Amino acid sequence: MRILVTGGAGFIGSHVVDRYVDLRHEVLVIDNLSTGCRRNVNPLADFEKIDIRSDHLNKIFREFQPDVVNHHAAQISVPISVKDPLLDADINVKGLINVLENCVAHKIRKVIFVSSGGAVYGEAEEYPTTENYPPSPMSPYAINKLLGEKYLDFYHHQYGLQYTILRYANVYGPRQIPHGEAGVVSIFINNNLAEKPSDLYVFKENPEGMKRDYIYVEDIAQVNELVLNRGEHSIFNVGTGIPTATGDLLKEISKQMEVSLKPIMGDARPGDIKRSCLNIDKVIKELGWNPRTDLKDGISSTISYLKKQ
Hints:
- The structure is a single chain.
- The chain contains 10 helices and 12 strands.
- It is α/β, with parallel strands linked by helices.
- The chain folds into 2 domains: about 1-170 and about 215-240, NAD(P)-binding Rossmann-like Domain (Rossmann fold, 3-Layer(aba) Sandwich); about 175-215 and about 240-275 and about 295-309, UDP-galactose 4-epimerase, domain 1.
- The strands form 3 sheets. A 7-stranded parallel sheet has the order 3-2-1-4-5-6-10, with helices on both faces. Strands 7-9-11 form a 3-stranded mixed sheet.
- It is globular, with a radius of gyration of 19 Å.
């Protein structure tokens, strides 16, 4: 199969590329390297440095002729989206539309779209939250991820373009950069390595920190394999179903690193939500997928990776 992966030089996208290459698919990575890194790209994958908003995307689609497009390219930071909503919309909406227009023009069979289960549901009353819960996004990032889902549905009905939407929980692991919701894992580890206290943002009524569902990146890569030929016109939550407070996350990381630094407490930032945890019954039932890596083991692997950098 010929697969084009946008954002394939980034943290999550590069692990997905590795999985596809291991399965002997022909893979082309496109990435503007704004947050991705060239060294992340699997040497057996082809690479083009290009922005998803570029008019030259048409040439790449025409020459490569992918069967499937896996769309990981995005502006991933909630605080940045609050500070600069026009930038977030330009990348996460305009960029996606440019990709989808090329998918239609070149008769691509399917798009795998990365959404955010950690953001689009907002302060959900259903907890853990299922795919049927009405989204209530609370940041431009979350709004535009949900809008991306709506555009996919439009392109499906208008042009017959097949898609699968993956609503990720908070993904962490090797190659992670200190941005996005789960970037806190790499931030905490790097701060401990530098013997620098970490900022811990909290709501006053939840001094232990915000609760999040942390999922290891290699488990995410497996889901991206399973939906190559399954899950058409479907949305799947992809997480663990286990909430962890950021204060407890920092304690676990510090324990494994044998570091004792008191965090710097700060108020929750604009766009932050108090808790997020995903119900994953649907992905288990329909795809036979289960997360394999528990948080302690995943943190250990991430610490080992970052120590070598």
